[in-house]
Specification:
Pfam families: Acyl_transf_1. The chain is an alpha/beta fold. It is about 55% helix and about 10% strand. It folds into 3 domains: about 230 residues, Malonyl-Coenzyme A Acyl Carrier Protein, domain 2 (3-Layer(aba) Sandwich); about 70 residues, Malonyl-CoA ACP transacylase, ACP-binding (Alpha-Beta Plaits, 2-Layer Sandwich); about 110 residues, no CATH class.
Amino acid sequence: MEKISFLFPGQGSQFVGMSKSLFNQYEIAKQTFEEANEILGIDLAKICFEGSLAELAKNDIAQPAILVSSVVAFRVYMQEIGITPQFCAGHSLGEYSALTCAGAITFADAVSIARFRGRLADQIALQDVGAMSIIDGIDKSKVEEECRKLTTPEQVVAISCYNSPTQTSISGEKEIVLSVEEKLLSTGCMVTPLLASAPFHSPLMTQASELLRAELEQYSFNWFKFPVISNVTGLPYNDPDQIVANLVQHMIKPVQWQATIQYLKRKGITLTVEMGPKNVLSNLVAANVEGIEALCFAEKEDRQSLSNLHERFPFLRKHFPTIITRCLAAGVATPNTNWNNEEYQAGAIVPYKRIQDMLQQLKEEGTSPTEVQMTEALELLKTIFQTKKLPVKEQEQWFKQMVDETGNYYTLRDTLNRILQELVSSSDLMLA
């Protein structure tokens, strides 16, 4: 029986036409792009499908585009295959995608954060003082040695990604990065400069990391549906409270990708599924360990392999949550502080039974919930919450999270905004 980890790629995985096939085939992919378009105020789908590579290379476009493409792949996978992972891990920017798909960051927040991070990168890149390059075909210890030799108190160069035993990336001041490249090229290794890239995962990003901290502190984070492995430690997060500190350190410390893949191997992972625009990370799995199959959901043949896996192990499938199932879960999971039995019967038991009946009807018909049914379920849940006297802040969090994780924001945004406004109004009346 397979044990699965999802992998999420970082910058450099973008290309013109990314996610177009999923967009054309699946409604949830369209809804995800439409939500991103609204958040960003641009037609991201058009840029991804018809724009120029130069436009897609801009950090403030590339970073949200890659994140959105990764979430699209994840949502389609969960809808069509539905076998949940034991772990999620993202490379560099991909860690934001992993945190999003694990439910720790809402999709809307993640898109905004990715754009902010991309703008920071653009500002650093425009200064033209830093550089970043991939070094392939040489032991990491030799790269470390050359970086150590050429680093001075005034000029720093260091390994920024430990991708495999023989692939790293280096970041630092442009002049000294070029010097390290020259030294390493003489050994016969391959050097690939990352054009227009900020010197990510190096001390040169310290000032930018503090700006990122100020931005991240404006957001709230949720518990993980699946464990997410941190680039900084190569180990899973223990608590959402670690997210801000880890993502700040993530800007100035190297990506421990080799340690990440080795951790997955130790935990018995037998299959990785890359959730992104194209196959980028799968080759790095084989470069680090043996015995883990690596598939990419963007590849048609790999999607077929995953469908076959689903057919072989149907008991592993956990259906992608719908608004109906999430309303039922929330109705049970939230505490009750209303001890009036008559009120509880009318305002909690009866609405809950109605949602159960809706789910049973959908199962019998083999259909997905309509917008009308989803709206009714949310209204019934609001009645349950109010009857239980759940604090308004908790109600808001539940509604936002369930609409986000089911990929229904674009469809239900008017309903969600109305419910949230009603909650605020009722809270104001109670305080008056």
